[in-house]
Design goal:
Among the domains are: 244 residues, FAD/NAD(P)-binding domain, CATH 3.50.50; 105 residues, Flavocytochrome C3, Chain A, domain 1. The strands form 5 sheets. Strands 7-3-2-11-18 form a 5-stranded parallel β-sheet, covered by helices on one side. A 4-stranded mixed β-sheet has the order 1-10-9-8, with helices on one face. The protein is α/β, with parallel strands linked by helices. The protein starts with a strand and ends in an 8-residue tail after the last strand. It is globular and about 60 Å long. α7 packs across α15, α13 runs parallel beside α15 and α14 runs antiparallel to α15. The protein has 15 helices and 20 strands. β9 and β10 form a beta hairpin.
Length: 504
């Protein structure tokens, strides 16, 4: 591959989800690179958690977030997140977002697992992410300060001895362009597509994590992957999501005999933390007892949950009459590029925000509906920091020599990586299984490194597997069957050294 041209750019935001657009809209000028998909934001059925109810406070929201986090969330980051909830909702309404209202014309608040109060703001029942994406995209479209370039995929970051100097990207025609930029903000989302079963769209492959690692950025908490308990088993990739709000409204989990099984796993039953519910369903399948969501008691299902209803109809199921077969699926990544509330990475010129970042706000287990909130609150803070910190451009750096020889085609071995990660580095892990995954990845490496999608799959899988080996305990989304209990001496974040740089 050869670089077709070089463009001088404003701060470049990679990704156009809630986090990326929140950053771009807060900057005097910004260029947004996006593949043109809604990404994970548009797929989000869950709502936005915010302490806007009369019986709620930001402090109580923070307490719930810390409780679910497995004890390792960063308190100051959590406080910033929850304190910003009310303003984030107000800002979206100012931009034209239409949220669900109750009979009094007030925000209709739902409840999800881990929350002591009803504080989940929804739009059209289960289409909150799509409404947030619509609102922010519309604001970007009419803004003179945001230039959104659709159909672009980041290949690599450009760097020199001082730090990151820009982005190398490919457009929809396959042309390679170098963007020389004073600041790069990675809002590339998570890593869901590294797993065989996921709720994440096809573009969520961990490109930002891999690129940041290549330029030497510090990473954190890569072992913590959240598996949503209730993906609809309908033979689709990605798996359709059955929102947690269903369980918040009274849906229950039952086995193939119609018996509830969550009561023996946690006192909160179906509203237990997501990792507990996901593992319980995993074990149901492991012993071939089946797992189904029984939502037949929910009134007005088609109007209250239109997205879920459409999914079930496509699968020839009717939630008003049928039990819905469910399975866990990789859903959210608590790890990422180590960054504080300002989004600054350990490498000059590089910021990260949203799911691509690891601010410590989620710890080992994300509280339901905190993800859209994180993108909104921290997106604004990152924009402020970038605006005040950005230096001068004109330092076009080099890019990784090995990537210059890679194709853009996705090799079939990526599917082998996805299956391996699901079986060995999924919901239930063991030391032997993790070592087996590591050795198998090394065997697959030569067949993956010749393409950019293959290389990213290898790098992300290797990073997550290595981090999981390092944590010999169970905590939040990381469960080791050989170390089933938490270890107080490991009650801290796991900072990960990046993969070694290649020789240029």
């Amino acid at each position: 591959m050869t670089i077709e041209r070089v463009e001088l750019a404003d701060p470049v935001v990679v990704g156009s989800g809630v986090a990326g657009l929140s950053v771009a809209l807060g900057l005097p000028r910004a260029t947004v690179l996006t593949v043109g998909s809604l990404g994970s934001t548009g797929w989000a059925q869950g709502g936005i958690a915010a302490a806007v109810g009369e019986d709620d406070t930001a402090e109580l929201h923070a307490s719930d977030t810390m409780t679910v986090s497995g004890g390792i969330a960063v308190q100051r980051a959590v406080d910033v997140l929850t304190a910003g909830g009310s303003r984030a909702i107000e800002r979206l309404i100012e931009l034209g977002a239409q949220f669900d209202l109750d009979d009094r014309g007030e925000l209709k608040l739902g409840r999800e697992a881990g929350h002591q109060r009803r504080r989940i703001v929804h739009a059209d029942g289960d289409a909150t992410g799509a409404e947030v994406q619509r609102t922010l995209s519309a604001a970007a479209d009419v803004s003179d300060s945001v230039d959104v370039l659709e159909g672009w995929r980041m290949i690599d970051l450009l760097r020199d001895d001082l730090g990151v100097t820009g982005v190398l990207a490919v457009d929809s025609d396959g042309k390679i362009v170098a963007f020389d930029s004073p600041a790069v903000i990675l809002a590339t989302g998570g890593i869901g597509q590294i797993y065989q079963h996921t709720t994440n769209p096809s573009v969520v492959t961990g490109d930002g994590l891999a690129a940041a690692s290549r330029v030497g950025a510090r990473l954190a908490d890569l072992e913590f992957v959240q598996f949503h308990p209730t993906g609809l088993m309908a033979g689709r990739d990605p798996m359709p999501l059955l929102t947690e709000a269903l369980r918040g409204e009274g849906a229950t989990l039952v086995d193939d005999q119609g018996r509830r099984f969550m009561l023996r796993h946690h006192p909160d039953a179906e509203l237990a933390p997501r990792d507990v519910v996901a593992r319980a369903i995993f074990w149901q399948h492991d012993k071939q007892a089946g797992a189904f969501l029984d939502a037949r008691n929910i009134e007005d299902f088609p109007s209250r949950f239109p997205t879920v209803f459409a999914y079930t109809q496509e699968a020839d199921l009717d939630p008003r009459e049928d039990l819905l077969p469910v399975s866990p699926a990789a859903h959210y990544f608590m790890g990422g590029i180590d960054a504080g509330s300002s989004g600054r990475s350990s490498v000059s010129g590089l910021w990260a925000v949203g799911e691509a970042a690891s601010t410590g706000v989620h710890g080992a287990n994300r509280l339901a509906s905190n993800s859209l909130l994180e993108g909104l609150v921290f997106g604004a803070l990152v924009a402020e920091d970038v605006h005040h910190a950005q230096g001068l451009g004109g330092r076009l750096g080099s890019w990784t020599a090995g990537l210059a020889k890679c194709s853009l085609e996705r090799p079939p071995e990526v599917d082998a990586v996805r299956q391996l990660m699901w079986e060995r580095v999924g919901l239930v892990r063991t030391g032997n299984g993790l070592w087996d995954a590591r050795n198998r990845l090394i065997e697959l490496q030569p067949r993956l490194m010749g393409s950019i999608p293959g290389r990213v799959a290898f790098e992300v899988a290797a990073l997550v597997t290595t981090a999981a080996l390092r944590r010999s305990e169970s905590r939040g989304g990381h469960y080791r069957a050989d170390y089933p209990e938490p270890d107080s001496f490991q009650a801290n974040r796991n900072l990960v050294e990046p993969i070694p740089k290649e020789t240029e």
